[in-house]
């Protein structure tokens, strides 16, 4: 496997660190902003309240990202993790918000975060449920589940009137080709900055074609001070139950993301590491509720950045946290990044997410494909893809089922864990599992250094 350009504890030069941190910001910012926009739109909130939610989401994501990367006592996994608002909570948030308003969402999230905080103490036992075969399936499913997101971006954004237009696809392909060229033929820092180079090239192309919309930039306030408890809080029992279920689902997804990150950074993830990471997710979501942000979780898409660039430094991603914090305090900065057209993000995103898939395939190649393991891999990926590609599959089932099994990552992960427990012969695979913990994700840009 190719060496990393920068390992987890490495501290790149300052300018290098800035450019590398900017890549993670570009990969995460759209997702962080999207959740409060979706919730605000569904609840028909006035514009000033939607802006308050967005600013709080950026601020909370930035602070918790720093803690996750740097660590504070037993809190924080101390790896390159970007935290952000999670779509896993959107369904619960909207259902609670329609009846109890934003105050009900925030209060339910604060109470529900206790599920994740308490769950963190059981992570050493949960870690044993993820031998190498299961982890390989989870990493692969994370990448496969993100591919449709990149495709929607490349096509111009889901619901756009120009979805799939030749112009959008041409821009996305141009960015993808530029990223591939920089990774393949660039050297050292240039190769590691392939995402920034690709997005910058696509952005300049869109500027020249008059496709950049600066409306949000002109409307964004220059500065926005934090407004803790701005919406107030209420604690409806139904909302707490819904959010608690969403937090249980997020424990599974975050565990998978941490395992994928361990493979990408070439650092095995122990049960103790998982405990610190999940504890930060839980405390981070509680803090987010206090500053009026939707709940947070670890972003899987940023694992793709690590995989593609070979930059695993947690100090780089901690600076991304600082950038997110500043974007929350100075919304005009975040609004400038949001002007990047979605096809540009799609071209880069397709490469990033496909790298996670590639890493999963690489890990699967080291699995001993007995009949038992073949069943685990085939059934789990099949079930995960069923939900990913046809989410309407669950539309006739109770809302509870949709809440728990609406994510392909969750379905694939749970299927793999359950089959691994039920099918006989699991102990015979322990040696393979131990060997597989040192597998990595994909070929990195460190190869070019």
From TrEMBL:
The keyword Transmembrane helix applies. Its main location: membrane. PROSITE patterns: XANTH_URACIL_PERMASE (PS01116). It comes from the Bacteria. It is a multi-pass membrane protein. Residues 429-449 are annotated as: Disordered. The chain crosses the membrane at residues 21-43, 49-67, 79-98, 104-122, 129-151, 163-183, 190-211, 231-252, 316-338, 344-361, 373-389, 404-423. One of its GO terms (molecular function) is xanthine transmembrane transporter activity. It holds the Pfam family Xan_ur_permease. Belongs to the nucleobase:cation symporter-2 (NCS2) (TC 2.A.40) family. This is Purine permease.
